[in-house]
Amino acid sequence: MTSILPPVHPGEILREEYLVPLALSAGALAKRLGVPRTRIERLVKQETPVTPDTALRLARFFRTSPEFWMNMQAAYDLKVEAEKKKQELATIESFEAA
Fold this sequence. Notes:
The protein is an all-alpha fold. It is built from 6 helices and no strands. The longest helix has 19 residues, at 66-84.
């Protein structure tokens, strides 16, 4: 699986598509979500993943779905892992039915 686009962390999407246009700081969002300020700060700095708890809260606040946030995280994780294991995965032969 080769991708020409780099993996996009959900924190980047949160920052660029939600916080910046709304002029909302990570601290202000954290307060509205009822979570520690550092959770959102670390997320937008791409230092931590979206957790199910955070996905539920972001979905409620931004009127999205928790799956939207979790799917972004899963896609990011898969791209990062695929790149790390590219050579190892290339040695695996595909299954062929007899």
